[in-house]
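Revision sheet: structure tokens.
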Amino acid sequence: MSCTARPGSTPAEVIENNFGFLLVAHQLDTDWRADLTTMLDMTDQDDYWGRIEAERRRLRVELDRVNTMFRYGSIDEDQFATDIASIQQQLSSLPKRDDQERYKTRAIEAGETLVTFAESWRDASVQKQGEIVRFLLQRGGLAWDHETRRIVGLHPYREFLPGLTLALMPNGWHEVIGWLWATGIEKPFWLA
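Predicted:
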């Protein structure tokens, strides 16, 4: 991915290289399949599903708010379309109870992919490394701290979240509504 950002910003290759370091340094261990299955079974608890449903309600209220703002002329059509698409994407990424078994299967397959990508990262070209990042993370799914020059947040596609959580959580990362955040990073205001 070539960087077309402002002067003084961090080139995409530097950020992608940092992501590769995370991927390689925090690989899943040999028992990852059993650990992942246990972790996913724990997500069947009511607390987990309660948080998911609360987030679903919050997003539906936000959808109503954006519709009302557009109806009364507070936002233009472009902003309306952007906001609606973002909210609908967030809604569609939330897990549903019916999907749990399929999700477990996909999460294990995604774990296999993570292992393969981690093993092949060093030999991959810069272009291939960029493709790996885009394959694992949602658009805009990487938060970079320019001061510390490190990745502080990741928003992987849903099926990669459990594997990345399993790999990064022992190193202080934590999950907040589909994002993984580094130690000391709280839920950002734009996820509120």
